[in-house]
Write a structure and sequence with these properties.
With 322 residues, this protein is α/β, with parallel strands linked by helices. The protein has helices at 15-25, 46-56, 100-105, 158-171, 175-181, 194-199, 220-229, 231-238, 251-259, 279-288, 301-318, and strands spanning 3-8, 63-67, 81-85, 116-119, 124-126, 143-144, 216-219, 264-265, 271-275, 293-297. It has one domain (3-318): Spore Coat Polysaccharide Biosynthesis Protein SpsA, Chain A (Alpha-Beta Complex), CATH 3.90.550. A 5-stranded mixed β-sheet has the order 3-2-1-4-7. It has a 3-stranded mixed β-sheet with strand order 5-10-9.
Length: 322
C-alpha cells in the first residue's frame, strides 16, 4: 500500500505571513494563551525532518509539505517531495487561517493523498531506520498506543482535548473498544503506561487518551467519517482564524480510530518527546539512536539561542550535513 507523509510548516518571521496575520487580527480577538509566538516560530528543524525521511524512510510514497504560500529556499521538489499550499485543499471560506487545528483537520482533502498517511510536524525527526510496519499493520491498520488517561489541567490546550472527548463520547461507550478486542487496549507493548488505563477504570465515560506527541498514523477515510458525523461543528471550528478554546483537533480522528478498534498496538517506546531544554538528553538520543522518532518541542524563546545550536550540531553530525 502507498503511505504518504503530511508535514505542515510555517515560518512566522516571513514578512508576508506577518502582514497577513496582522490583517486578520484586525477583526479577531486573539486568545494569547493558545496563540503564543512558538506556534509560528521556525527553529530550523525542518531540514532535518526532511533529511531523516529521505535517509530512514525511503519507502514513503509522497511527502506533502503544507504551507501558506511559503517554501524554504533549500527545499527541492521532486517525485517524492512536493509543496501544497493551503489554497489547494482548505475550502476558501476557511482562509486565511493561522490555526493549526484547522489545517490538520482538513489535510484529508489534499488531492492525491493516499488512504494511509502519517501526520508529521516540523519538530519531528526520524532517528533510526523505520519500515511501513512501524506505522501500519500488514492489513492497513494504523499503529498506535491505546492508553486511557485523564486529561491534564496544566495547559490551555486541554480545553481542546476535552472538546474532542465530548464529541467522542457521543458515539462510543468506554467499554465498546475493550469488548470488541480487549487485547488492543491491554497489551504488553504499552509497559508501565497501562497503569494510566487502570486508573481510569472507575469512570463510565471515556476520560481521555495518552498523547505521545509523535507522528500519527491515519486513514483518510476516518477523517471523512468524522466530517460526516459532525459537519456543523467542524465547519464552525474551521472558521476560527486562530486557535480557540472551542476548537477540535486532529486527535479527535485518532481517538475515533482507537475507540472503533481500527488500529494495531505499537510499542510505547517507539518515539520520545523532549522539551528543547533537555539538551543533553536529546543529544544522547541522537548520538546513540535510542528511539526511532524524536519530537523536540520549542518551549522557550529566551533560551532558544543557547539550547538549540548544540542540538542542530548533533543532527548535522548524524546526517553528515556539515
Amino acid at each position: 500500500m502507498d503511505i504518504d507523509i503530511v508535514l505542515p510548516w510555517v515560518d512566522g518571521s516571513d514578512p508576508k505571513i506577518a502582514q497577513k496575520r496582522e490583517a486578520a487580527l484586525r477583526d479577531w480577538r486573539l486568545d494569547y494563551d493558545l496563540n503564543s509566538a512558538d506556534r509560528f516560530r521556525d527553529t530550523d528543524l525542518l531540514k532535518y525532518a526532511i533529511v531523516s525521511i529521505k535517509k530512514f524512510a525511503p519507502w514513503v510514497h509522497k511527502v506533502y509539505l503544507v504551507t501558506d504560500g511559503q517554501k524554504p529556499d533549500w527545499f527541492i521538489e521532486d517525485d517524492m517531495f512536493t509543496v501544497v499550499d493551503h489554497r489547494a485543499f482548505i475550502p476558501a471560506q476557511y482562509l486565511p487561517t493561522f490555526n493549526s487545528n484547522v489545517i490538520e483537520l482538513n489535510v484529508w482533502r489534499i488531492r492525491g493523498l493516499s488512504e494511509h498517511f502519517i501526520l508529521f510536524n516540523d519538530d519531528i525527526i526520524l532517528n533510526q531506520p523505520v519500515t511501513p510496519l512501524d506505522f501500519f499493520s500488514a492489513d492497513g491498520q494504523p499503529k498506535d498506543t491505546a492508553i486511557y488517561s485523564v486529561i491534564p489541567a496544566d495547559n490551555y490546550f486541554s480545553h481542546i482535548i476535552l472538546n474532542n472527548m465530548v464529541v467522542l463520547n457521543k458515539y462510543f461507550g468506554k467499554w465498546d473498544g475493550l469488548k470488541k478486542k480487549w487485547s488492543n487496549f491491554i497489551h504488553y507493548k504499552y509497559g508501565k503506561l497501562l497503569f494510566r488505563s487502570l486508573l481510569s477504570l472507575p469512570w463510565d465515560s471515556i476520560v481521555g487518551f495518552y498523547n505521545p506527541h509523535i507522528p500519527t498514523s491515519y486513514k483518510k477515510s476516518n477523517f471523512k467519517k468524522i466530517w460526516e458525523l459532525e459537519p456543523n461543528k467542524l465547519d464552525q471550528v474551521s472558521r476560527n482564524r486562530f486557535r480557540e478554546k472551542s476548537d477540535l483537533s486532529h486527535w479527535l480522528v485518532r481517538y475515533y480510530q482507537l475507540q472503533s478498534n481500527d488500529f494495531s498496538p505499537r510499542n510505547a517506546n517507539f518515539g520520545q518527546f523532549y522539551e528543547q531544554s533537555e539538551t543533553q538528553a536529546i543529544i544522547a538520543d541522537i548520538d546513540y539512536s535510542k528511539h526511532k522518532v524524536l519530537c523536540i518541542n520549542d518551549s522557550s524563546e529566551a533560551q532558544l539561542s543557547q539550547e538549540m545550536p548544540p542540538i542542530l550540531r548533533a543532527f548535522n553530525n548524524k546526517f553528515n550535513m556539515d
